[in-house]
Amino acid sequence: MGIKKHQEEFEDFLKLVREIMDEYNAVFDFLISDLEKKIKKVDEIQMNFRNIEDMFELYQERSAAFFNKQKNEPRKEDDFKQLEKKEYKKVFELAREGLDITEIAKKVDIGKGEVSLLLNLKQKNRDKFTK
Q1: What are the φ and ψ backbone dihedral angles of 86, each rounded to 5 degrees?
Q2: Residues 5-25: what's their mean pLDDT?
Q3: Which InterPro entries does UniProt cross-reference here (predicted)?
Q4: What is d(CA 113, CA 104) in angstroms, rounded to the nearest whole number?
């Protein structure tokens, strides 16, 4: 076997190694890209979760302020009936039908936090009048 033959075999081997390396690089590029997309999605979910937490805290504060105000004012059973007569009546009807907060929010076209707040207010109001 001559040097030329060994050189050709070596060049073929190098070509094969380069092809394998190119394939590995393509796989690694794909994996990195996929991982970056997943990290971005996790970041978006974390941001959405923080926004939901902020909204929940805001609703809690508003609810607490509302109840503190109501505690200091004389209550009439008519106050809550007026709320039922307004646009939120549909929320209470759907809740009585057994729909969950997400379904009610979609049907009435209001936020889930608002639906939750209304239902909590109704329950707390009902509890006050049954004591």
Answers
A1: -80, -165
A2: 95
A3: DUF6115
A4: 11
